[in-house]
Design a protein that fits this description.
CATH architecture of the largest domain: 3-Layer(aba) Sandwich
Number of helices: 11
Bound molecules: FE2/S2 (inorganic) cluster
Number of domains: 2
Distance between the termini: 42 Å
Helix content: 25-40%
CATH class of the largest domain: Alpha Beta
CATH superfamily of the largest domain: Flavodoxin domain
Number of strands: 15
Radius of gyration: 26 Å
Strand order of the largest sheet: 12-11-13-14-15
Order of helices and strands: EHEEEEEEEEEEHEHHHEHHHEHEHH
Mean pLDDT: 92
Structural class: alpha/beta
Low-confidence stretches: none
Shape: elongated
């Protein structure tokens, strides 16, 4: 064995040949060690994207696939996949000696990060000037070709019409069923650092429909009204699909001590033929509270006819005719705007130790 201390013994050849890809330490550096077609390859273990552990990924042909968001690097040269060769991680020399594998601690090549265009959602936080702006998010599901009446969406539209007509404010209505967006793929479960802002799905998929929700919530709106039907005692499936994709917003607090939804007001519309309004409202308030949003007094309006009501057509009729519900929604709009105006006027400072379990940055 060479006495040159730059060469590090990383283990017995016999053992290292048993796995196609693994992470090993060369001194204090984590590298991705691969063995395929009788040849070892050693490249740096930290992915160029946001540092995913390449040695814990998989091999696809001669490419190491990062376990976090699937970027690829050649297992021998460290170069990115075809078309992205210049986006490379360092390559290391290795050699067999006396039944052991030695890896040279000084990389043979240097890494290189190609500049990537900033994602449109990756921009400075902060409210841009102008009057208050109100977004509505309808989470009800229905057939796009043959739409039906939705009582929760109708009340949401009542609220948006009210703020436009009475206050001259700008509104946006987002219907989740019209957005083509993927379910959260659980990057957070791999590592908290794998859950990025902007969401890695949005970064990888330019057609990701959640863009509209992120843009409205984080950058555009001061007030957000979320409407849902009650389905089996809970909010709609689209509502939960959206919530899970909002992990990226919540995760910025424990990970970076960064509050994306600052001085934002939330309110809710909940309607259903059967009951469970309090549980649905409770979940919605918990979730949007954990995102950092604030609530006016009495932050939701709701309607249901009770457990034994199966005549849904009467429920719809009731909501259509109910002056009380429409009036309640307009009154709630006023409370939301009043609180939003007060928050803007006071321009609150940072919220220290925010987020679940009062986590600080780590
Ligand atoms: S692809 Fe490797 S960290 Fe994102």
């Amino acid at each position: 064995m060479e006495s040159n201390s730059d060469w590090v013994d990383v283990g017995a050849l016999e053992e290292l040949r048993k796995r196609e890809l693994q992470q090993v330490l060369v001194g204090r550096t984590k590298v991705a060690l691969s063995f395929k077609d009788g040849e070892f390859g050693v490249i740096h273990g930290a992915c160029n994207h946001v540092g995913g552990p390449l040695g814990e990924g998989t091999l696809a042909g001669d490419y190491v696939v990062c376990p976090w968001h699937n970027w690829k690097f050649h297992r021998i040269t460290g170069e990115g996949e075809p078309g992205y060769e210049a986006d490379r991680v360092p390559r290391f020399e290795c050699r067999a000696e006396g039944g052991r594998l030695l890896v040279r601690a000084t990389p043979l090549t240097e890494g290189n990060k190609l500049p990537h265009d900033k994602h449109p959602l990756d921009r400075p936080l902060g409210r841009f000037e102008g009057p208050l702006r109100v977004a509505g998010i309808s989470t009800t599901a229905m057939n796009a070709k043959f739409p039906r009446y939705s009582s929760s969406e109708a009340l949401l539209e009542t609220a948006l019409t009210h703020v436009r007509e009475k206050h001259g404010l700008e509104t946006r209505l987002i219907k989740l069923r019209e957005l083509n967006f993927r379910a959260c793929e659980g990057c957070y479960s791999k590592s908290s650092k794998a859950c990025t802002w902007p969401c890695s799905i949005s970064q990888m998929d330019p057609s990701d429909g959640m863009h509209d929700v992120y843009d409205a919530l984080v950058y555009w709106a001061d007030v957000v009204l979320i409407a849902t039907p009650i389905s089996w005692g809970a909010a709609s499936s689209l509502y939960f699909k959206m919530d899970e994709r909002l992990n990226t917003v919540q995760n910025q607090m424990p990970l970076r001590n960064r509050l994306l939804l600052k001085d934002k007001i939330a309110g809710f519309v909940i309607t259903g033929g059967q009951d469970n309004i309090q549980a649905v409202a409770g979940q919605m308030m918990l979730f949007f509270g954990e995102l950092g949003m604030q609530f006016p007094p009495f932050p939701f309006i709701a309607h249901s006819r009770g457990w034994s009501a199966e005549d849904m057509e009467h429920n719809v009729d009731y909501v259509k005719r109910s002056a009380e519900l429409s009036e309640g929604e307009r009154a709630l709009s006023e409370r939301r705007l009043e609180l939003a105006a007060r928050l803007q006027a006071s321009a609150s400072g940072s919220l220290s130790r925010g987020g679940r379990k009062a986590s600080g940055a780590h």
